[in-house]
Amino acid sequence: MTAVALAFGVALLLAVLTSALADRSPLSSSLVFLAVGVFVGPLVLKVVSTDALTVERAAELALYSILFTDGQHAPWRVIRRAWQAPALALGIGMPLTFVAVALLAHGVVGLSWPAALVVGAVLAPTDPVFASALVGRDEVPHRVRSLLNVESGLNDGLALPAVLLLAGLAGGSPEDWSTHPGVLLLELAVGVALGVALPLVVGAVLRVPGVEAVERLRPLGPVAVAILLFGVCSLVHANQFIAAFVAGSVVASLSPQASESFRHTGELLSELTKGVALLAFATLLDGHVFGLAGVGGLVFAVLVIVLARPIPVLISLLPHRRLTRRERAAVAWFGPKGFASVAYAVIVLSSGMDDAEAVFGLVAVTVLLSVLAHSSSDVAIARWLAQYDDAGEPIERPAGPLDTTA
Known about the structure:
Elements: H1 2-17, H2 19-22, H3 29-40, H4 52-71, H5 76-81, H6 84-109, H7 113-123, H8 128-135, H9 142-169, H10 181-206, H11 220-236, H12 240-254, H13 256-284, H14 287-308, H15 310-316, H16 325-333, H17 339-351, H18 356-375, H19 378-386
Helix pairs in contact: 1-3, 1-13, 3-13, 4-12, 4-13, 4-17, 6-7, 6-9, 6-14, 6-15, 7-9, 7-17, 7-18, 8-9, 9-10, 9-12, 9-17, 10-11, 10-12, 11-12, 11-13, 12-13, 14-18, 15-16, 17-18
């Protein structure tokens, strides 16, 4: 425990001290936590090691935290105004990505079709934790941020039933999870219902005469809602990822002031949970994991990142005319794989299905490469998009005092 605390403290301090540099360069806090985790883990110093269950819990916590926070960037008025692009990305792009990843897993790596389909379901969703690197940048056009935010906020919860169902069909029996389609759909529906109902109940309580929060404690109100919601979802086996995003959206819709007061606190909590999860994930990586993937796994991971996400998303957005070509390209590229995929891969690993270890190895390597690629490209993409207006035309900057090209 001492070694873990020291490693996390060092990583957090380095992330803080390099944060200004990270805002203007390919370096990111994610890379810092990954590097420290690899350094203290089995690959180098061997002073910190972790197990798959710990990584799953850390990944779920980080994912839940960022989903609740990101949901508050998408109140109902925003979703009503710009629902078409996320609907296309979720309804067409995500299924096409699932098919593309499964084809690569079978064709490049040689996995059986049942295992390949599981890999497709695990890697189909994008990760809101890393997508927030663009969502949180004001220089990125609002429609791009809105699309990435809603897509990454909903697709993790939507992918979970598919992962469990396909793992069950492949011979697995995930612990604490049902693989019956009816039960999975019910858990999804209950998650949505709880995400709507709990903030409504809390909002009603706050309107009772005499019930009021002091200014300094108001940011903790949404935190309390998030914690309570997580507990209720766990108690009734509801889909907590869908519930988190929906609840965040409802909180922002009911009380923009409460949402605004929570924003800074939420971002800090999300950064902390992201750091914990990345450190835990990095200390899980060892020679065995990379051996499971092999050279074919590395090729597979590269193809998933550069082809299996971009092409389906570009196809799905063809009917949507409001996005410029540059915005489409940015959205297509920026589909990071992260904590949802890690958590789902651990569920598959514990399910006992055939080729479970091979599935986990492929997912781990893909997530690692995705974090490296997407965390180091967010600044460049934001600057690239900021150079063009809503029509896709270059923005003319005013000439500086030393500019003599008149």
